[in-house]
Amino acid sequence: MAQALKQNFLKGIIKENPVFVMLLGMCPTLGVTSSAFNGLGMGVATLFVLLMSNIVVSLIRSQIPAKVRIPAFIVIIASFVTVVEMVLEAYIPFLYEQLGIFIPLIVVNCLILGRAEAFAAKNTLLDSAVDALGMGVGFVIALTALGATREILGNGSLFDLRFVSEDASTFILFILPPGAFIALAYLAYLFNRFTQKSA
Amino acid sequence: MKPKRRASTLANMVLVLLAITLAAGVTLGFVNQWTLEPKAAAQRARKLEALSSVLPEFNNQPVDQVVRLAVGRDSIEYYPAYMDDTFVGAAVTGYSEKGYSGNVRIMVGFEPDGTILNIAVLEQKETPGLGTKMKGESFIRQFRGQNPSGFDLRVEKDGGEVDALAGATISSRAFCEAALMAYEAYVDQQNAQPDK
Fold first, then answer.
1. How many distinct structural domains can be found in chain B?
2. Does A38 fall in a domain?
3. ipTM
4. How many Å apart are CA A110 and CA A121, to the nearest integer?
């Protein structure tokens, strides 16, 4: 039992990492990861929405008629996203401003709908919550790693701590959109190189 | 384990969706009410922080004495600052629609004679690493202590005296335009009501 839960949790981080293995939720992944802090913030916001929506979907899964399950899931997800948006604006306005349009766009992150449809709609509350935590943590790690890589190369800093002078020339390309694709590709390669045993 | 689902009859679908949207609406209403005050407080705190970073010491409430002025397609704000009822300067916002990506909005603090004390960037969506350096000390430094009556607020490329950011002339130009707008509004306001 505990072993199964652990397996369930770890699969989201390694074997089925949403970003590096399943390549889900690419819009926020590429869009907001211009710094490690942004990546972390987006990851945590998504983790919260994923966890709450998985819990609610799992709780009411037997009550939802199959034909209207997608609209039902979307309403649930959109509600939690709106809650996150309002709470961020009220209590962490700095992060709210940094993430901007990408917060409402969590609604259309296919990772969240994907887990609701593929997992929470068929599994118990506990399993769904653990699945969401695993996937969410995997997402946080991936976004933070990508943000950190881009910030170090593009801005010469990490979590806003500069380790080069303000006038030093850095690979600005990495903070720009093309750098997101390049960094993601290399990180995904490295990740898979070291975690996936069978090709 | 095969999931047992409620059958997809019309009545079931309507009822379930109604229940879900109703619950969502009520929840959001509550959260909205609960965050209304902290949201307003956070906005006010941000404004105050910008104000105290660009103004000399004051002990009035500039936020409550704000004057809104229509300029161009938008409006700007004029915050007078007093120390024991003596006018010590004002913070004026300025904006430019010529940013590299979206509007640039800044707040400029003036001494009574129009000398720039400091500038805070309120809103910008410029290119990270290039245009965003307008928030940096090395760019803002050159404006401090300058009086725009004797300091040409244009980038050097346009014949002015502002050293533009490397690789971000457009952003620098927008910044200067916003600063000039703030200065002109400040002068107008002083001419209309001196020391207010």
1. 1
2. yes
3. 0.75
4. 15
